[in-house]
Write the structure tokens for this entry.
Amino acid sequence: MRKIKLIILVLLIASVTNLHAQKNVSSIKDPLIVAKLIGDKLIRETPFKYRLAVQSNTHLFNDLQFVDFGRTFGTKQPAVAYAYTNLTVNNDSDLSIQIAHNDGCKIWLNGKMVYEKRGKQQLEIKFEERSVEMAEEFKVSLKKGNNSLLIKSETFGNEWVVYLQPPSLKGAVINSSSDAPSIGLNAVPDVDSKISELTNWLIIGPFANPEGKGIDTFYPIEKELNFGKMYEGLDSPVTWTIPKIEVLGELIDPLPWGTNYTWNYHNGGVAWAMQQLSEASGETKYNQYATNFCDFQLDGAPFVNYQVKTLRAVNSANNGFLFSPLLDFTLAPAIPFIYKLRKEPAFANREEYKTYIDRMLKYAKADQVRLPGSNIYTRLTPEKYTTWVDDMFMGIPFLVQASQYANSPEERKLFLDDAANQAVKFNEQVWDPEDNLYMHAKYSEKAIKLPHWSRANGWAIWAMTEVLMVLPRSHPNYKLIIDHYRKHVESLVKLQNQNGFWLQVLDRPDSREEVSGTAIFTMAIARGITNGWLNAKKYKPIVQKGWEALKTQIEPDGTVHNICYGTMCSEDVEYYMNRPFYDNDTHGLFAVLFAGIEMQKMMLRK
């Protein structure tokens, strides 16, 4: 017996050694084992916690800047204070600046007043899809080199902050910084470089605001920048200092695409995939990962709210969880929450999940912007009423889940009808009938044909399969959707290359082989075979070839290669051709997980 045990141990060691010696997992026959390798890596490497760090500082004026006098001076009585910085440009240039502030404010550029507003007023900023918008704007003419900027701000005893940003940020997703001015203290004489690393601003105050006229009361600061000198302040002498430097909670070791637990659609997608993997494998640890993701977001919401609203760190970690009018941060990442509510009738914090999902259900019905005349989900970026094919996935699968979760037959019908209608109506907007592929997006006001990006086509076909799995065959939209699904599949199979991959830009033969699109197409076609929508004999070789291609990009430790980074929509095909690829980007991980699960189902189908 002892000899038999020794032989078994040797064989096990040899098996493990052989597995780790492989460069990928091509020899593994069971798709679920491959999916579990990825799931296990996610479990090992996702901490679901924050780390503390000093608030980061950028010296390019291509992002939101603010001076929070209230956090520094803490006064609850009328007062005045100043902030100073430099704007530096390579050439003479004109610049528009958006501004938001409470109460009165004056701004001087190189000693000349360029903005003033008096009287009591509330701070007004509006959180849009991917930006903060401000109602006020002023223009400045910058001379080549350094330009001094002096802000004078008053408070009547309440909020006390000034926000500035270039208006090019309004609605922007990807910003070019090539022409952005530099901002900060690097060029200010007698200021140590360590100070400029921490902040872009010097501030001084508080000064008295006599009879509410402090904004027009002259203080020597308006004529001199003198260090080492004391001035008569509100309650005591004051001198130049820096704003309060905040310590923020950040996500741990983010990569360019983020982390496994950043709040966004693809990490919500990973959690949803892990729920599915748990069901397929019978192993609860994968479902626990999804629960950890959801609980981390719910538990951290007050902390995120504090950072965004009290510390003014509007771009801090997981800010999108609070509320963002964008499907990427609302319905799509909410799927693992509603799925858990559907599948688990009792768990400790179920009421918290339900409260959150009730908000998302309202958002799905009434708050997300829709395209006039079509009633499908659309966006205000990069232009008003830009319809993104991405939003087929960002919105429709949640509607399908909502149709299964809702309490009343009327609500269930409402959500399912909405999902089916959108699946049909999106095709009227972003489907390219000349090439039988999806364009990435469509502008309402411009007749421009956008490229056939792989992952965008993936989002579309994925959404259609989610609808088809629950939509009754008697539904008036069923035939329209399944016919379109089949038409899309026919186009896609012609574009699969000899290695089994689909390319980053589907109809550009010189484009790179890309994993996320390949995974989604493999999943969606396998799902079609399993559900009887497609002829198994014809399409099985396609999906098997796609799955074998995917396995060449997966390491035994669960690493997945060659996933396209997150992508804005663009009219320029070269933009897509040149997008960076990364390992383990969750845009692709959850697609590969779903592909493995659907491949397993297809193989088990009799």
Q: What stands out?
A: Confidence is low (pLDDT under 50) at residues 6-21, 169-177. The chain has two domains: 26-53+250-604, 65-245.
